[in-house]
Amino acid sequence: MIIAWVNELGLWSWWVGGLILLAAELMMPGMFLVWFGMAALLTGILSLVFWGASFWPWQVQMLVFAALSLASILIGRRILVKDRDRSDEPLLNQRTASLVGRTATLESPIREGRGRIRLDDTFWTVNGPDLAAGVRVKIVAAHGRELTVEAV
């Protein structure tokens, strides 16, 4: 069936296949099929140039498609990794790290290096020097769910 479809469409089969893959990418999340769709479109461009040449049978076309797929995946991955590092909110999913620099009042005194503060609507376990309840502290570091504080 696929061979009959490719024979019927001729060199346009790569274009149609690439557009189908790109359309399928719109329906499925993950940024996966787009690289294969781009490789199919590039193979379609090469087919426009080389169609009818003796060195351009379907086997060579498939090898070119596989090579272009691999190349587009590697290039796309490199582009996406660069974009992942840039963010307008780098601490979005790191709640404790976003608290560093804020000040609060100790709810429970710090004894033997541990106490509690309240920030917004949450109580947080803090580490720091022994201090009495009611003292203003500044958060200087975050490790997991525990915050390190010092007196202001």
Topology:
Layout (H helix, E strand, L loop, with lengths): L1 H8 L3 H15 L5 H18 L7 H28 L9 H4 L4 E9 L2 E6 L2 E6 L8 E8 L2 E6 L1
Parallel strand pairs: 3-5
Antiparallel strand pairs: 1-2, 1-4, 2-3, 4-5
Key words describing this protein structure:
single chain, 152 residues, OB fold (Dihydrolipoamide Acetyltransferase, E2P), five-stranded mixed β-barrel, 5 helices, 48% helix
What does this structure look like?
The chain has 152 residues and is an alpha+beta fold. The chain contains five helices and five strands; from the N terminus they run H-H-H-H-H-E-E-E-E-E. Strands 1-2-3-5-4 form a five-stranded mixed β-barrel. Helix 2 (13-27) packs antiparallel against helix 3 and helix 3 (33-50) crosses helix 4. The mean pLDDT is 88.
Question: Mean pLDDT, rounded to whole units?
Answer: 88
Number of strands: 5
Q: Segments where pLDDT lies below 50 for 5+ residues?
A: none
Helical content stands at 40-55%
Number of helices: 5
What is the N-to-C succession of helices and strands? HHHHHEEEEE
Largest sheet at a glance? Answer: 5 strands, mixed, barrel
Q: How many domains, in number, for the residues?
A: 2
Summarize the structure.
The protein is an alpha+beta fold. Helices cover 48% and strands 23% of the residues. The chain contains 5 helices and 5 strands, in the order αααααβββββ.
